Backbone:
């Protein structure tokens, strides 16, 4: 049974209450935490959006979402009804003045509650909503503002958002979500590295040949095409989730788990990333876009058809990059990163490939010699595998074969893995920002990404096509193979 640390009673206002993120992720996450009694029934969840709804209408909408998105085994009828009893709605326009007084008077009924404002809207609204929160007197020492990604679409817009939010609240009350940091297996990277000293000596350029991070998705752009076509895989996944993974892998040990201690170390990694200048972007990056193909035997349309576009789009649904961290620990160790939609299956995996022995005593016939690898499977089937060379049993010659020391977290712990938003929402209420991005992290990540975007703009080539259901364009394979390495495919 998982340990539950209860949190204080809160009034959580969700702007964007009728949107996809709220319906699919936020309400189910809050329901699960309520069902496990992590927060008191004096808490309230207050939806806010422009759609004309009363409390009853919004509760019906929320119930429908919960029935659709919470697995049946977790849906307890009594808990569901009690949870819906905590749900309220106020019609509010984040860009106008309507609805604000009614929202604020609801909050004023319970001034002692912790007050998270979750901004699940388009980022253009973050500044205007924050200004209104301040102007209508809704902010105080117990308030926190939660910002969804993307924080901007480049450095300038990220700074504008951070500036606008920073004008009304101190940094300690601003929670920039990167939901990958809430995933159990991502948090486990810290445990792996800093609770197991056996790995520390190995975690170094002397021992590690290279690192691969793959975040593959089976899904296409779904209903978020409008946003995605303006963003692309580099902005949508690399600027945030994948760079955060890289930071956790590459950072030095923080002096404590205190939010700033961890974020100080992560930002050092971001600052140490070797810049990819615009004129080098074509050497160190590959962009791709899926065409029609098949996944799990089912035909799926291409990107353009998925979005219903009449003209070709230059947006990448796949990107592969070679990154390098200029530090003593990592000098000369490439980090190969790739992510894409409509790949053969959902799979997020980190591979550390170790150096081969400096001299081999085994004869050439000892076929099968491969480097040691540590595979960290983030999702699905969360676990780890250390691949080691062993002798194949038998009286014949000496044949070597990689065998794995496997740990399946699911089998080991035998319990449901909470969704990342469950953990992160409770951390917001607690005021613990360790798993959230600080302003300088977001801006430093943009500083590294921006010249790549600029390089792409200066050479506006169409992304390379890859068939849905494949591992991306062949140029991504060529990029790593030019270095004498290869993408490693999976724990299976
Ligand atoms: N969906 C996802 O899986 C993910 C989303 N995100 C981010 O979360 C945010 C929300 O995404 P998503 O839910 O998909 O977006 P949607 O487009 O589905 O929802 C947007 C929400 O904003 C509300 N809204 C729009 N304009 C206003 C306004 N002027 N005042 C008040 N509310 C307004 C809309 O309601 P109404 O029209 O009723 O006002 C709606 O509830 C975005 O920043 C997105 O990038 C991040 C990661 C994943
Ligand atoms: O933030 C995002 O993440 C999802 C992938 O998240 P996961 O938890 O399912 O791995 C991605 O589909 C989406 O495009 C992106 O905005």
Residues:
């Amino acid at each position: 049974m998982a340990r539950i640390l209860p949190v204080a009673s809160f009034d959580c206002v969700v702007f964007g209450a009728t949107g996809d993120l709220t319906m699919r992720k936020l309400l189910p996450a809050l329901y699960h935490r309520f069902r496990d009694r992590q927060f008191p029934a004096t808490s309230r969840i207050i939806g806010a959006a422009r759609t004309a709804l009363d409390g009853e209408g919004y509760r019906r909408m929320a119930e429908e979402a919960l029935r659709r998105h919470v697995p049946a085994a977790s849906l307890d009828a009594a808990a569901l009804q009690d949870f819906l009893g905590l749900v309220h709605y106020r019609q509010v326009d984040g860009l106008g003045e309507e609805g604000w007084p009614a929202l604020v008077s609801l909050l004023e009924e319970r001034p002692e509650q912790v007050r998270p404002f979750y901004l699940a809207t388009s980022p253009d609204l973050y500044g205007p909503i924050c200004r209104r929160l301040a102007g209508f007197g809704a902010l105080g020492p117990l308030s926190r503002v939660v910002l969804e990604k993307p924080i901007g679409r480049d450095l300038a817009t990220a700074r504008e958002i951070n500036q606008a939010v920073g004008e009304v609240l101190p940094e300690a009350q601003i929670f920039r979500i990167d939901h990958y940091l809430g995933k159990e297996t991502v948090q486990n990277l810290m445990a792996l590295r800093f609770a197991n000293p056996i790995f520390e000596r190995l975690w170094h350029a002397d021992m590690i040949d290279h690192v691969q991070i793959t975040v593959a998705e089976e899904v296409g752009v779904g209903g978020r095409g409008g946003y995605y076509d303006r963003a692309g895989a580099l902005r949508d996944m690399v600027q945030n989730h994948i760079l955060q993974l890289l930071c956790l892998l590459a950072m030095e040990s923080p002096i404590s788990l205190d939010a700033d201690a961890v974020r100080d170390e992560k930002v050092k990694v971001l600052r140490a990333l070797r810049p990819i200048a615009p004129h080098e972007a074509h050497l160190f990056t590959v962009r791709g876009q899926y065409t029609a193909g098949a996944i799990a035997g089912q035909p799926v349309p291409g990107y353009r058809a998925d979005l219903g576009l009449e003209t070709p789009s230059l947006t990448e649904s796949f990107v592969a990059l070679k990154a390098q961290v200029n530090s003593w620990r990592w000098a000369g160790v490439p980090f190969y990163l790739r992510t894409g939609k409509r790949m053969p299956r959902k799979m997020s995996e980190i591979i550390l490939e170790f150096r081969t022995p400096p001299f081999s005593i085994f004869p050439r016939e000892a076929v099968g010699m491969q480097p040691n690898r540590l595979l960290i499977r983030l999702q699905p089937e969360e676990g780890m595998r250390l691949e080691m060379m062993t002798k194949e049993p038998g009286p014949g010659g000496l044949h070597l074969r990689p065998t794995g020391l496997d740990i399946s977290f699911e089998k080991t712990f035998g319990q449901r893995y909470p969704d990342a938003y469950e953990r992160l929402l409770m951390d917001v209420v607690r005021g613990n920002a360790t798993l959230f991005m600080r302003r300088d992290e977001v801006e430093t990540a943009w500083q590294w990404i921006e010249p790549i975007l600029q390089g792409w703009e200066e050479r506006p080539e169409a992304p390379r096509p890859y068939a849905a259901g494949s591992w991306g364009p062949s140029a991504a394979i060529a990029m790593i193979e030019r270095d004498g390495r290869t993408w490693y495919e999976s724990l299976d």
About this structure: The first helix runs from residue 20 to 35.
